[in-house]
Write a structure and sequence with these properties.
The chain has 13 helices and 17 strands. The chain is an alpha/beta fold.
Length: 447
C-alpha cells in the first residue's frame, strides 16, 4: 500500500506558509506543469526554459542563502514542512520559492526573482551565499523535449496517443523470452544466475508513477509521492515499465517470463513526470530531495532534457554520494550526434547508454559522457492494466537494468554504497568493443 505524505506543518517562517487557496502566477513556485508549458508556448520560440529559476547555495551557506532570499521579501516554503519531505508542489500556494534542503537548492519563481536584487542566470561572487542562479528547464520521458514543447497546442492528441499505444515489437522479438524464461536483458546482465534479491535495499524510481494495483506486485510495499500535482497512479506506462525492470517479480504468474531484477527491494515510487510524460526541473529535484531524505540507496531516473550541466543536479548527485546513495539516469535518445542529456550529463550522476540484443550501441542512444551501458532495445516489462505487459525501447529501459543490478550489488555488502557502489559497477562491467563515448565501461553485470 502506498504511503501518503502528511500535510505540511506550520511554516518555519511567518512569511512562508504554503496555502493551496492562494492564487498562483504562471511563474510561481507552485505553478502546474501545464501552466508552465502554456506560458512557454505563448512566449514562442524553441527555448526549453520554464521562466523559473534554480538557486544553488554555496557549501555550508544554505541557511544564509535562505535568509538572503527572504530578505528580498520572498515567501519561502520548505520541503521539511511536508511528511517525508514529499513536497506537494500544487499545495505551495503563493510561495515564491521552495527549499530542497537535502540537495542545497531552492526553486524560485521568475516573477519573484525579477523583483529581487539578484541577477538571473549567473554565478554569484564575493560574500554571497548563493553559488549560481540557473534557468529551470522542461524535462521529458526519454528526453523527447523539443518536439513535445513545439507541439504543445496538440498535446491532447499526444497524450491520447501515449495512453493508447505501446511500441510494436518486431517479428520474433519475443523468441528468447519464451524459450529461456527470462528477458534477453536480464540474461545479458547475468541476473538469473545471481543469488541476490535486493532485500533490504531501497530503490527509488522517479518517473510517471506506478500502476499500484498491478497483479505482479501484489503484496509488495510501495512508498509513494507525487511531485506533479497528479495521483501516483500511472496513466502513461513509462514508470510502470521502468519499475518492472528494476524491481519486478522473480517468477511472474503463468507463462510470463521473468523481467525484473531486484525482486525483493523496497520500491519508492516518485511521480516526477506527469501522465503526459512531461515535467520541469523543480519537480525532478523535489523527487531527488525526497529520495535522498528517505535513504534510497539507488535512485533511478529515466528522463531528460536538452540543457547544459546544471549545478542543481550536480549538487543533488553529490549530496546522494555523500549520504552513501547512488543516482543513475538515462543518457537520452537523440542519437550519437547529440550529447548526453541532463541530468545524466552531471558529473555526480551515472549516465546509462542503451544496447541492442547484439550488445551493440542502440542507434538512438546519445553519446559523450557515458559511464556504463545496459539493455535498452525491445525490453519486455510491466505496463498498467489491462494490458499488463509490453515492449519499450530507449535509454529509459537501460537505466532500470542498471538500477536493479546496483541494488543487487548493494545487498552484497553494507560497504558498497554511494561512490563505492559506483566504482564496483564500473569495475565489474563487461567490456565491449565500442567507444567509451557510446558504452562507457561496458555492459553492467549482476553480482
Amino acid at each position: 500500500m502506498a504511503k501518503k505524505p502528511t500535510p505540511p506543518r506550520a511554516s518555519r517562517s511567518a512569511t512562508a506558509a504554503p496555502t493551496s487557496a492562494a492564487p498562483m502566477t504562471p511563474m510561481s513556485a507552485g505553478s502546474s506543469i501545464d501552466a508552465l508549458l502554456l506560458a512557454a508556448q505563448e512566449r514562442g520560440g524553441d527555448s526549453l526554459e520554464t521562466g523559473r529559476y534554480l538557486v544553488t547555495f554555496k557549501e555550508g551557506a544554505m541557511d544564509d542563502g535562505v535568509k538572503a532570499l527572504r530578505g528580498q521579501a520572498m515567501r519561502m516554503a520548505d520541503a521539511r514542512d511536508f511528511g517525508g519531505q514529499a513536497v506537494e508542489m500544487d499545495a505551495l500556494g503563493d510561495a515564491d520559492a521552495v527549499l530542497f534542503p537535502e540537495i542545497n537548492v531552492a526553486l524560485v519563481g521568475g516573477d519573484a526573482l525579477g523583483a529581487s536584487a539578484f541577477s538571473a542566470s549567473s554565478e554569484q561572487g564575493g560574500s554571497s551565499p548563493l553559488q549560481v542562479i540557473e534557468p529551470e528547464y522542461f524535462v521529458f520521458a526519454d528526453g523527447a523535449s523539443g518536439d513535445y514543447l513545439r507541439g504543445f497546442l496538440s498535446a491532447a492528441e499526444a497524450i491520447a496517443r501515449d495512453l493508447g499505444e505501446l511500441p510494436v515489437r518486431p517479428d520474433g522479438a519475443d523468441t528468447d523470452v519464451q524459450v529461456l524464461g527470462n528477458t534477453w536483458g536480464l540474461n545479458a546482465c547475468r541476473v538469473p544466475a545471481s543469488l541476490r534479491t535486493g532485500q533490504g535495499i531501497n530503490v527509488a524510481v522517479l518517473d510517471t508513477g506506478m500502476d499500484l494495483g498491478h497483479p505482479d506486485f501484489a503484496g509488495r510495499a510501495f512508498v509513494s509521492a507525487s511531485f506533479v500535482g497528479q495521483p501516483v497512479q500511472d496513466l502513461h506506462s513509462h514508470g510502470t515499465h521502468c519499475i518492472g525492470t528494476a524491481c519486478g517479480p522473480q517468477a511472474p504468474a503463468g507463462n510470463t517470463p521473468r523481467y525484473g531484477v531486484a525482486f525483493r527491494s523496497t520500491i519508492y515510487v516518485g511521480k516526477v513526470l506527469s501522465n503526459s510524460g512531461s515535467s520541469v526541473g523543480g519537480s525532478v529535484l523535489a523527487g531527488m530531495n525526497w529520495a535522498i531524505a528517505n535513504n534510497c540507496q539507488v535512485i533511478s531516473m529515466s528522463l531528460g532534457g536538452a540543457s547544459p550541466v546544471q549545478a542543481a543536479y550536480t549538487n543533488a548527485g553529490a549530496a546522494a554520494l555523500q549520504r552513501g546513495l547512488l543516482i543513475v539516469a538515462a543518457a537520452g535518445n537523440a542519437g550519437p550526434a547529440s550529447p548526453t542529456l541532463a541530468p545524466a550529463n552531471s558529473p555526480t550522476i551515472m549516465a546509462v547508454a542503451s544496447l541492442d540484443n547484439n550488445l551493440a550501441p542502440s542507434a538512438f542512444s546519445c553519446a559523450g559522457k557515458i559511464e556504463i551501458a545496459a539493455p535498452g532495445r525491445d525490453i519486455y516489462s510491466s505496463v498498467p492494466r489491462p494490458t499488463r505487459y509490453g515492449f519499450k525501447s530507449g535509454t529509459s529501459m537501460a537505466t532500470p537494468h542498471l538500477a536493479g543490478c546496483a541494488a543487487l550489488w548493494a545487498q552484497t555488502s553494507p560497504g558498497l554504497r554511494g561512490q563505492a557502489l559506483w566504482n564496483r559497477l564500473l569495475a565489474t562491467a563487461r567490456a565491449l568493443p565500442h567507444p567509451a563515448s557510446r558504452v562507457g565501461r561496458g555492459l553492467v553485470q549482476a553480482p
